[in-house]
Amino acid sequence: PRILRGEYWLENNAFSRAVADFDTVLDADPDNLPALLARARSYTRAGLTSKAIVDYQHAAGLSPDDAEIAATLQELVETRAARLARQVRYDSAALMDPAFRVDLGTPDAPHHAVIVHAGDRLSESLGKINSAALTTALETGALHVTHLFTYTGQDKTIWANLSLICAGPDNFARMAALLRSDAGQKAVADMVNDAPEALTALHAALPTESPDAAAALSACALDRAHALRYLADWNAKRDMLSWKGVNYYDNWPVFVLDDAPLTAKAFNAALRSDLINAVVTEAPTPEAPAKTPREDMATEPATVAMAPAENVAPEAEPEAVTEKPAQGDNAGVPHPAPRPTLSPTSSAPEGPAVTATPHQAPQNAVSLLTIAPASASRLPPYLKGIWVPTLAECIAYTNRTATPTRLDDAFPQTNAPDAKPFGTILLAGKWLYLNDTSDTRCALQDFVIPAEDSAAPGWTARLTCASAQDGTMSAPVTLTERPSDGPAPHMMAQRSTQEAREMVLCQPIGALSRGFAPLWENNAENCRVTAPLANVRLTFTHSPEQRLTLSLHPDDTSTQPAPLQVLLDSQPWPLETRPGANGWNVDLGSFDAAAAALGAGLVFEIGSSEQGMWRLPLLGSGRAMGALAACNTASD
Q: Among 221, 360, 450, 572, which residue's CB has the most CB atoms within a 10 Å radius?
């Protein structure tokens, strides 16, 4: 009965309740295959890929001949690996000091690989590499490899890292093999406890004819001062470019070839190819990073939060929650230094969602908005995206937008009137959309990043707010950076003197753009691109006269045309516009200037005080305008 009830909850997207029922069955019978598979499906649907993989691995062990289980497990593993590679941001400027890394091969080799390890978990990195192909590439002089060692928050990781670093290039392979063994793991545990037998085990990894190497290892690997210097350099290099989203120290394992992060599968494929002449083409396209200044790096993925058992927090996917969802998911992200984390208080979004269609927009929908952002202020790209106060709300938004059919699916649903001060919100370059029933929008007035020697905790943004329905001013908003436990940026949001609420970036703009850009419909023959929205289709045309025109095609053909208002990011369209002949068309101006404006904006609105406003998120608009730019020979 528990499994059947859990299946019912799963069918109705009540993931926490479904998992709770499957947990009850598995607590009594850990090898119950139907319950394992059902819970794995629940985790997959909820976006908890790593937990789903664990259950599928268990199920595969119970039923090793089941091809469907094996195929599903393999698909999840490969999907997660590809996502993790896409979210990694690499910059060679942030490589650690040579004293705290191991370089193998010829420094001037035509290709350079970087591998990021956790020294006490080498099976997760070296265990995935084709060692024979790697050795061949090193021996032929085709490849220079830099081994980096990140800190995971565990003391044993530091000592394992130092053992590899202190062994040096000549003995790196030997020490790595030792640390992957039971004896090596015990040696690392002994190092943590200052046990003298630790060095005996480490020395076993060195050639007997190398007393100097043994002495150097003894002096280096257990040197507490050396460990502090390693941590200082790790912190400095990790933070140095984090404002740009560089985050390869926050993820492991990481495989980089010629500055391009790859999956282990792609990395091995490159090693097996003619590496000297190969051009790596499998690198993922970088996205707008999701990262707070001087703190942890979305993207992605996915991503809102992860448990310490996992290696990385996806940009777009809530990952491996440590507690059962029915008991309240702790959205802690695995990270070297433990810090306060966002702790969702519910397993479902708070209050009913209120969905508004464009034709439900209020009269004079945005024409009375009198506030404006400060011209010199703009939020950095890594803060733009969908922010949520709880893991449950991130899961709800991610599930709702997993397979979008319209561009406006990207907008969060309207937060319920009785919701707390902040629900699911959209943060743009100069605007904050609260998505409440008053259509409150907040204009950025200043954005301050403190100096490096400042005692301030991080960046601060201040915004003035007003209702787009009637122009009524409301309480201002202050956003303040909060240190996070991992890649997903955190902030505290506060309205005037009300209680501040912790928010976390659920979906960065880069991930949203990748997901929604394919929805633009390109008609190259007629030099048009169409954006599908609820109740209307917007068609942009590049005319032979080098103009960008826009036509509206409402689903309700009985609706009468009316004079159109055009807004970009809550402000009047910045270029001269000309109304069309039938009221459903508008000339947006010269193509180059209009396309550039659309590419730089995030929210485009068009409509009238009589009909209401249609709202178009400009996700993928740069690609759409690029398709139009090369086409100007045909137009109806």
A: 221
Domains of the chain, each with CATH number or no CATH: 2-83 (1.25.40.10), 92-272 (3.40.30.10), 325-514 (no CATH), 520-629 (2.60.40)
> For residues 87 and 34, which has the higher predicted lDDT (pLDDT)?
34
316 contacts 301 by C-beta, under 8 angstroms: yes
Residue 310 pLDDT > 60? no
Give CA separation, 356 vs 372, 422, 438, 535, in Å: 25, 18, 12, 12
The model carries a pTM of: 0.46
* DSSP secondary structure string for all residues of 62-124: H-TT-HHHHHHHHHHHHHHHHHHHHH----GGGPPPGGGSEEEE-TT-SEEEEEEE-GGGGGG
421 cis-preceded (ω within 30 degrees of 0): no
User: Tokens standing for 590?
Assistant: 């010269």
DSSP secondary structure of 316-349:
S-----SS-GGG--------SS---------SS-
The residue with greater pLDDT, 203 or 309, is 203
Give the sheet arrangement for strand 565-568, strand by strand: 571-572, 565-568, 603-608, 612-617
**Confidence band, pLDDT 50/70/90 cuts, at residue 419:** low
The values of phi and psi at residue 87, to 5°, are -85, -15
